[in-house]
Amino acid sequence: MPTSGPTLGYVATLPVPSAPGKPVNRVLPPQPLRSAVVIGGFTVLLYLVELVNSAFFHGSLASYGIVSHRVTGLPGVIWAPLLHVSWQHLFSNTLPVLLFGFLAMAIGVRQWVAVTVVIWLISGLGVWLTESTGVSTVGASGIAFGWLMFLLVRGIFNRSLKQLAVAVILLFYWGSALWGLLPNVDPEISWQAHAFGALGGLLSAWLVAMANRPARTAGKVVA
């Protein structure tokens, strides 16, 4: 109810705390079951696409991947991570997709979706710009490399010992995968997809660290 008389203003002697932000040093997803369902559903989608490709199209859908330097090959940026050359190709990508994708959801599903979109686009456009002409590039490994790089560097940006410890474990078990970033290691493997996916993961980790940085307020005047 309004009152008459002068309104007095007060100056806080201590900073007024801002709204509680998201923990930036989380290692596991805040909602593990939901995250498992999301990454499991994505993996099931990959298997369904490969089933349709092998059963009804005899593997020909792989030709609709990223075809570099051609405008008609640009739509492959969207579809390529969902397509694979063979069941063996998909099997080799399954565990990295499940593990890295799940751990990357420590930032929450919404931010994870944004991170994945950044990695997806940077990896695909990088392939389109730099891969040999006339080659159709497919597979989810570029996305997996992006998630891996995101997990490796987020602890540095966040100054989190927990996340750095996870990075050390990932390097111990998956360090050999980083050879996939080097040109001409295997002519049948797109190092461009891996390298640009990793670049997308690095950029995403920096963007997330900036977005989650807590606001520091020296003081606040309240009335």
From TrEMBL:
Localization in the cell: Membrane
Membrane topology: Multi-pass membrane protein
The Peptidase S54 rhomboid domain, residue ranges: 77-209
Record Pfam families: Rhomboid (PF01694)
Regions crossing the membrane: 32-49, 135-157, 164-182, 194-211
Superkingdom in the source lineage: Bacteria
Main subcellular location of this protein, as a coarse class: membrane
Entry GO CC: membrane
Keywords: Hydrolase, Membrane, Protease, Transmembrane, Transmembrane helix
Stored Gene3D superfamilies: Rhomboid-like
Molecular-function GO term, any one: serine-type endopeptidase activity
A GO biological-process term: proteolysis
Name used for this protein in its record: Membrane associated rhomboid family serine protease
Source organism of this protein record: Kutzneria buriramensis
